[in-house]
Amino acid sequence: MIWFDQNKLEQRLLKGELSDHHAFIYLLAQLALICVLLQLPFEESSLWYVWLLISLVVTVAGVSWSFRINQKGGDRDYLRRFIALSFVAIMRCLLLVFFISILDPVYTWIKSSIDLWSFWAAFQEKLMNVLRGFILIFYFIYLIPSFKRLNAAEVNFAQSKWISQEKQELKNN
Fold first, then answer.
1. Taking Cα atoms as reference points, which of 128, 126, 137, 127 lies closest to residue 55?
2. Residues in the chain with pLDDT values less than 50
3. pLDDT reported for residue 131
């Protein structure tokens, strides 16, 4: 894996020396680095390293799982599928974050309007933080089934194509 020499990487790409497996490693490393960048403690938080560990584990596990599923289903077009399917999964996560973001000020307004028990208020705040923290898990919950459906559809398509060819051969004979 080339870390800094972009010219060398470009040359390897031009020569066709990078396989899908190499591209998968680059994708995995890139997403892990994004997790690190997003979880660095820019503000004082006592549990930033826990969220970093969770996001790294979820990212590595989710991307690896999608890669293995793709390999079992014909091992084709992994990066194209990942990028396209990720877009839709991210859009769904954005809707979830938008919904949570709407709930947060509503909750704050209700909390300020009505005198709630302090335990319930603390629970609600922690719940909102946990929901925000687990968006990455929701992303993979949206993404992984798409790979499985693509594999199943390819198997069904290949079987129907084979059956059609068999019928055609029987007609010709």
1. 137
2. none
3. 67
Instruction: Identify the domain containing residue 34 by its residue range.
Output: 6-172
CA angle 48, 52, 58 (to 5 degrees): 145
Beta strands in the chain (DSSP E): none
* Number of separate domains in the chain: 1
Contact 128, 103 (CB under 8 A): yes
Two tokens, residue 53 = 């560990």
Per-residue burial over 112-121, b = 16 or more CB atoms within 10 Å of its CB, e = otherwise:
eeeeeeeeee
For residue 56, which of 45, 66, 44, 48 has the smallest C-alpha distance?
48
Rounded Cα distance, 42 and 39, in Å: 8
- In a domain, residue 1? The reply is no
Which pLDDT score, from 0 to 100, does residue 41 have?
63
Token reading at 121: 């208020």
Euclidean distance between CA atoms 166 and 152, whole angstroms? 21
pLDDT of residue 154: 78
What is the model's pTM? 0.64
pLDDT of residue 118: 56
pLDDT of residue 45: 65
State CA 163 to chain mean position distance. Answer: 36
Dihedrals phi, psi of 41, to nearest 5 degrees:
-75, 85
Query: Please, what is the Cα angle at 94 between 93 and 97, to 5 degrees?
Result: 85
